[in-house]
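Dear colleagues,

As part of the handover before I leave the project, I'm documenting each prediction I ran so the next person doesn't have to rerun anything. This entry is a single chain, and its sequence is reproduced below.
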Amino acid sequence: MWQAIAGLCALGAALFLLDRVLLWVEARGWIYWRKRKSMTSIGTEFLQEITPGAQAQKHALQQERVRKNIRPAEEPPFHVDLDANLVRIRHPDRPAP
């Protein structure tokens, strides 16, 4: 009888220590133990494609862009190349080369 109680206590202590070790590993960023990793932007975009409300909103934004003749985001008017120590700034009135 005492052996069973001692065994259960030892099992409980081992599980507690395992939990603490896994929490320490999670704090270092190696695994996710109790907290779940947040969804990536790819997963969010995938869910938005499935959801009818999100599809309607995306369609409405595209129609509004066409109506206002707004282009999607273009490249910025500057280019930075750190390897070549080069910065190019395009004048807003001149077209890109």
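DSSP finds three helices and two strands in the chain. The chain has one domain: 8-32+41-89.

All the best with the project,
I.
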